[in-house]
Write a structure and sequence with these properties.
Layout: H1 2-6, H2 8-22, H3 26-44, H4 61-67, H5 79-92, H6 95-107, H7 113-128, H8 132-149, H9 154-165, H10 175-184, H11 188-216, H12 235-260, H13 264-286, H14 293-317, H15 323-340, H16 346-379, H17 382-391, H18 396-411, H19 417-423, H20 425-434, H21 439-450, H22 461-469, E1 475-476, E2 483-484, H23 489-512, H24 515-518
Antiparallel strand pairs: 1-2
Helix pairs in contact: 2-3, 3-16, 4-16, 5-15, 5-16, 6-7, 6-8, 6-14, 7-8, 7-9, 7-11, 7-14, 8-9, 8-22, 9-22, 9-23, 10-11, 10-19, 10-21, 11-21, 11-23, 12-13, 12-14, 13-14, 14-15, 16-19, 17-20
């Protein structure tokens, strides 16, 4: 009994892992473990030697945990339904289909062009939707048949689609970053700012892998044939349009800078983008033929999602809106884009609301279960056990980071990112804070690591999403009429392995170059470089200079005599001197009369 009582924390944690591996729902596993071990802890408290601090009245704290600032009144978590709704509406609006078709035509003439297009569109969808399922399913339905039609290797095609969809986990406005910011007690805006550069670097690493593969195995990703390039040529026209945008933006900036100061650059860029967008629409509608068809299509298709990204992330980074307000504006923008394409209907809104409610309820129930679990876990001093375990790892901060990332990478085989964020992160954060690790940097590092949970064979959710839309049996291609072989589950799994390795490399780069994240703090000012200048006041001369009126400066008064330290200090007018006391006659005995 004493052994169990004094080791309640590790037994409780191991029991939770067993429950999850058996297959019980996460929210109910958390809550059931918390209540079961609370009952056991109260009974074994006398045998624990003071290590268990549980009593029945402590259960009264649960309602406050549920309805307090951690769950029901948590303003940070309000952003989750907004961003989920925005992503689902955009996925239903056909934006992904238009982007993939247009960007595929733009990159089509080069080897691996469709793979580059999938990665580029995956990053754009990540910055607008933040939902992995929507990105993977949309690109799997649209781009996978095209890539198979033109002879792409099945493993490369499957890996690119699955990996590009997981960019929604690290590129803002990611849902996992919102949860991590809440669990770490940090600002969502700072978390978004810190994760932006690592997300873009990871996108670049994906493209670098495609470039290397196109050189090593050129037949695995051929260029689009000439008959498939329906928009024709027109890259020079697109470059000319880009140059015109830069010129108009600079002219607008010069015009606006006297009145708007620091905001003139953003307003000028917005004016330039709006100008070229209006010109492209007018050129297409009125048949002016100033631009090529390719330039028209790229501008018309690409600018609305970029404007939506600025509406959401730009306002958050500039401090104009909170993440919740940014999500609300993004939802309105997504509805407007769907309406502009003529794809906004009552059925689309119902589907978006249903999916949003389901995901939000899922998150809420996991969070409630986590509060029940943490109440008992903290009562048996589990947080102290975890902190001592992690801070005592050999190697100090580096050893801690390696151990934590190995733990998260292993648990990602069995748990998804929500479960990892609600169960593991609250246990790791105190130890990281005690070691002096910046929690925003630590959160982004964990976010990159948790991204692998979508790509791990055999339980990666992105692989399941792609498996659900990839062909299981041979089929006839609707354009070429040729029979296309199906995509096997093994090909999907093997295609994911190189991208999991790239994500692991990204974890190492984030540790080796923390400034990729730490830039969110802005420029650090060295106090030693600050130059203090005292302004001159009329009628007064600078210190040490002659008077402003000229002439000889008056002689400085003589320094006062050194004070007599044998006397008490005087705080006012000098009192009159008292007569000296008579010297006593020490030859006679003292008199007390």
């Amino acid at each position: 009994m004493e052994f169990i009582a004094q080791n309640m924390a590790p037994i409780m944690f191991a029991s939770l892992i067993i429950f999850l591996l058996i297959g019980y729902p996460v929210a109910f596993s958390l809550a059931a473990n918390g209540l079961m071990f609370f009952f056991i802890g109260v009974l074994l408290s006398p045998y624990s030697g003071g290590s268990i601090n549980l009593a029945w009245p402590l259960l009264h704290a649960l309602p406050d945990n549920f309805y307090g600032s951690r769950v029901m009144s948590n303003d940070t978590l309000l952003a989750i339904p907004f961003f989920t709704f925005m992503g689902i509406v955009l996925e239903r609006s056909g934006m992904a289909e238009d982007l993939l078709d247009t960007i595929g035509q733009l990159f089509g003439p080069i080897r691996g062009g469709l793979a580059y297009a999938v990665i580029f569109v995956g990053a754009l969808l990540a910055a607008t939707t933040g939902v992995v399922a929507a990105s993977v399913i949309a690109m799997g339905l649209i781009s996978l048949p095209i890539m198979l039609r033109y002879g792409y290797d099945r493993r490369v095609a499957a890996g690119v689609i699955a990996a590009s969809g997981t960019l929604a986990q690290i590129i803002p406005p990611s849902l996992v970053l919102i949860v991590l910011a809440d669990q770490l007690g940090r600002s969502v805006g700072d978390m978004y700012a810190g994760a932006l550069i690592p997300g873009l670097v990871l996108t670049g690493l994906y493209m670098l892998y495609i470039l290397i593969m196109s050189v090593i195995r050129p037949h695995s990703m051929p260029a689009l044939p000439l008959e498939a390039r329906t928009l024709g040529h027109g890259v020079l026209s697109l470059l000319a349009a880009l140059l015109a945008t830069v010129v108009v933006s600079y002219a607008a900036y010069r015009y606006l800078v006297p009145a708007h100061g620091d905001n003139a650059d953003i307003l000028g860029a917005s004016a330039g983008v709006l100008f070229i967008y209006v010109v492209a629409i007018a050129d297409k509608r009125l048949n002016f033929n100033m631009m090529s068809r390719l330039a028209q299509q790229v501008i018309i298709v690409l600018i609305p999602p970029l404007a939506l990204i600025f509406l959401v992330l730009g306002t958050i980074f500039l401090g104009i809106a909170t993440p919740t307000e940014g999500g609300a504006m993004g939802s309105v923008g997504a509805l407007a884009m769907a309406a502009a394409k003529g794809r906004l209907s009552l059925d689309v809104i119902k589907q978006a609301l249903t999916s949003t409610t389901r995901l939000s309820s899922f998150v809420l129930f996991i969070l409630i279960g986590a509060r029940v679990f943490s109440l008992t876990f903290y009562g048996v001093n589990g947080h102290i056990w975890v902190e001592h375990l992690l801070t005592s790892l050999p190697g100090g901060e580096v050893g801690f980071l390696i151990g934590v990332n190995l733990l998260v990478f292993f648990l990602a085989f069995f748990l998804d990112f929500f479960e990892l964020a609600f169960i593991i992160v609250p246990l790791l954060a105190p130890a990281a804070d005690k070691l002096g690790i910046d929690l925003i940097w630590f959160g982004v590092l964990l976010g990159v690591n948790m991204q692998t949970s979508f790509m791990h064979p055999p339980f990666g959710f992105a692989l399941f999403y792609l498996r659900s839309v990839a062909a299981r049996v041979p089929y006839l291609d609707r354009l070429t009429g040729k029979q296309i072989a199906p995509v096997t589950t093994g090909q999907i799994y093997w295609g994911a392995v190189p991208f999991v390795c790239i994500q692991v490399i990204m974890i190492g780069l984030t540790i080796a170059f923390p400034q990729m994240v730490m830039h969110y703090k802005g420029t650090t000012v060295d106090p030693g470089t600050i130059d203090y200048k005292v302004p001159e006041v009329p009628g007064l001369s600078p210190l040490g200079a002659p008077p402003a009126g000229g002439g000889t400066a008056p002689a400085a008064p003589a320094a006062p005599a050194a004070p007599d330290l044998s006397q008490p200090p005087s705080f006012g007018d000098t009192p009159s001197a008292k007569p000296a006391a008579p010297q006593p006659d020490l030859s006679q005995p003292p008199s007390f009369n």
